[in-house]
Each structure stands twice: as structure tokens, then as C-alpha cells.
Amino acid sequence: MIDKPFWLNTSWKLRNFGSSRVLLWLAANILTCCRHHAGSSLASRLGACSYFAHVIGASLKLSTDLHYHCDNPPIDSKHRIKKLKHIITGGDGFLGTELAKKLVAKGEKVLALDIKKTSSPHYDDIDFMMVDITDKKALETVPVDDDDIVYHFAARLLVPIIKRPDRHEYFFSVLYEGTKNLLDYLENKTGCRKVIYYTTDMVYGHTLENPRPESHDRVPLGPYGDAKYQSELLCEEYRERGFNITLFRPRLIIGPGRLGILESLFKLIDKNLPVPTIGGGRNFYQFISVSDCAEICLAAVEKGVPNEAYNVGSLNPPTVRKLLNTLIKSAGSKSIVVPTPAFAVKFVLGLLDKINKPLLDPEQYLIADETCILSMEKAKKELDWEPKDDDIEMLIAAYDAWKNPG
After folding, report:
1. Are residues 123 and 66 in the same domain?
2. In what helix (H) or strand (E) does residue 237 lie, and over which residues does it extend?
3. What is the pLDDT of residue 164?
4. Do residues 61 and 125 both lie within one domain?
5. Are residues 296 and 395 in the same domain?
6. Residue 79 counted as domain residue
């Protein structure tokens, strides 16, 4: 048994030395070892050599480690390079494109998923994959890391108008089944657990409280709202299984390049034709800009993707009559707003829907004369966020972009 020289108990001191000092220390130990065992037996000297070989190996490793740590000091968390990426389903759509641009401006890495790809120049700065969320095998080709954040915008909308018999399959196949496919993939094949999902305020149905809080009863009026509602319930299940899922319920999202049901309105104004309203137009109407929709996503990320639902709508919305009259004046049109009896118009639209000649989806016209205003108090309180864009200015900007494309 070889007694340990005192210097073998000083390895803790090495961590205070530079790599060159370790090598000097090692040379001094070699000399000390030689003197210490100069008169010893052959077995003792062989044992010393074996033990010292172990010390040399450990010392050289420490020297290497110290050299590495001197050249590569620990990175402070504030300066650590972010490895996460932002994955956007429906990434080629109106909101997906807007969010991608904002993320790129912040220096973030973005991967867009969609079933189509436009020629937008922002694709020079992001990655893209052609993926249909209704295709489970296609989803499994998407590279997802544990720290990534998924923004689920892939959807089908109320425009174009779908005939009554086809609506359930049309909406549920994407809005519910597609959402389930995405969450199943994330749960079973990845460690990613952060999702931001845009649903709709149409999960509420008729207005029972004004303004409508997030706790408002969810009683959708048709397959579109119901598919979104069922997908919300699905998300609530996955929250219980360890997911962080933030739900956003927006009013009608508008902005330059997005038309939907507004295109018919713009055509009437452009041709100086009467603009009918369902009801007297005294109800208040609320939009939300695509820019604000993207900004609240960033606010949710800053807060750690809360397991909550939030309304997304403008502040201080005007009446329908004021909204339309201001747009008509701004456009220099000779159109006039024409009120109609809501019950009669709804009756006729209902008959047309039943014979598969729909002009509007029931989920649109059944609430057209109601004040459907979303409360924004929860988003302000929990996300420190408020919308910036004004309803009238948004509508005028959308009309101008339609009138003068490019």
C-alpha cells in the first residue's frame, strides 16, 4: 500500500490555476515522487509508478478542462443563443404570414407549414414545408424540438359559403381532426408542449353578456363554431396531460389583403349601390387587425404560453351604421346605408340555406343584428397587452388596399 504524498490532496487547488500552471505543478510532482521513493524496494517503486500514472492522467484531463473553460467561459442565460424555432401551421395564410414577418424582425427562426406557398418575399428568411395537418404521416416529417413553440393557425373559414349538407365534414376534418392530429404528434413523437391556437369568438353563439368575457357560455350556432368549440375542449384535455396551450378567440380579422365577407361590401360601395344592413345598424361591431393578432401571440410567448383562453378584439368599436357611413364617405361613394327588418331577412336567408342556395352562413346572419363585443380586460391584466388599431381605420385601409392593389 502506497502512502499518498500530501500534494495528492491538493487537487482542489487546480481549479484556481491556469492550464500552464497545472503543467508546472505536474513537473514538480514528478520530482517529488522520485525523491519520495528513491530508496524504496522495486515493488514499492512499481506501485508508485502505477499510482503516479493515474495522477498524470487525471492531471492532464484537468489541464485540458481548464484550458477549455478558460477559452470558453460559461454563457450567461441572457446571452445564450436561442435554439428554439417557431412552427406555424397555416403559415402561408393571412395571420401566419404576419406573425412570421414579426418573428423574423426579432431575429427568430421560423418554420411555416401549409398546403400552399405563395411568392411572398418573406420566404427568403424562413423555412417552409408543404404539410397538410389532416395527414398524420406528413405531420411526422416535421422536425420539432422540445423547446419549440407551435402556432396553430391552419383552418377552414366561413368564406367561401359551404352548402348545408357538406358543412360538418368540411369544418370538422380540419378544425377538429387536424388539431387532434397535431396534438397527438407533439405528445407521442416529440417533447414540445407549448401551443398557441387561434379558435373563434363564434364558439359563444348568441350574446348573453355584453361585453362578452372569456367565461361566456359556449353555445355555437353551426358546424364551424362547433368544430372550434370541440377543438377547444380537446385542448383542455391536453392541458391536463402536460401541455401549455393558449387559446385566442378573435373577432373578424381584417387588414390589407384580407377580404372574406368584406369583398361584397366593397363592391357595393365601389359601384355606388345601396348597402343593406340586417337590422337598423345600431348594434356595435368589432374588428381586430392582423397585426394586433400577431402581437398578442408574442405577448403570450413572453408570459410563458399560459393555459388560458383570451378574447382578441379592438377597443371602443363603433356602431354598424357609423362604420359603414364613414367608409362610404372616405371612398367618395354615393352609396347609402339601407336598414332592413332583421327577422324578415333572416327568414329568407334561412329558406335559401335549406334549399342549398345559401347567400350567407347561418353563423353569420343569425347574429348580424346583435352587439357582439369581446371584453379585453383579461388580456390586458394577464398579458399586459392591448390592441392598437382602430376599427374605422382598419376598414378604410382594407378598402383602399382592395381598390388599389399593390
Report:
1. no
2. helix 223-240
3. 96
4. no
5. yes
6. no
pLDDT single digits (tens) 201-223: 999 999 999 999 999 999 999 99
CA count, 13 A, side-chain hemisphere, 36: 18
pLDDT per residue as tens digits for the range 302-360: 999 999 999 999 999 999 999 999 999 999 999 999 999 999 999 999 999 999 999 99
Q: Which residue has cell 383570451?
A: 310
Residue of 406 and 48 predicted with greater confidence: 406
Indicate whether 48 and 116 sit together in one domain.
no
Confidence of residue 42 (pLDDT cuts 50, 70, 90): very low
What DSSP letter does each residue of 309-350 carry, written as one string?
A: EEEE--SS--BHHHHHHHHHHHHT----EEEE-HHHHHHHHH
**Does the CA dihedral 57-60-64-65 come out positive or negative?**
positive
- In a domain, residue 369? The reply is yes
Positive or negative, the CA dihedral 228, 229, 230, 234 is positive
* Domain span holding position 20: 6-71
What is the pTM assigned to this prediction?
Answer: 0.79
CA neighbor of 20 nearest in space, from 67, 56, 52: 67
CB atoms within 10 A of CB 219: 13
Asked whether the beta carbons of 86 and 109 are under 8 A apart, the reply is yes
Same domain, 141 and 261: yes
Identify whether residues 186 and 289 lie together within a single domain: yes
Total domain count, the chain: 2
Burial of 111: CB neighbours in 10 Å, binned 0-12, 13-18, 19+: buried
Q: Are 376 and 313 in contact (CB under 8 A)?
A: yes
Q: What is the pLDDT of residues 349-363, one digit of tens each?
A: 999 999 999 999 999
- Alpha carbon distance 311, 81 (integer Å): 33
Residue 375 located in a structural domain: yes
Tell me the three state secondary structure of residue 88.
strand
Question: Which three cell numbers mark 370?
Answer: 346583435
Would residue 190 count as lying in a domain?
yes
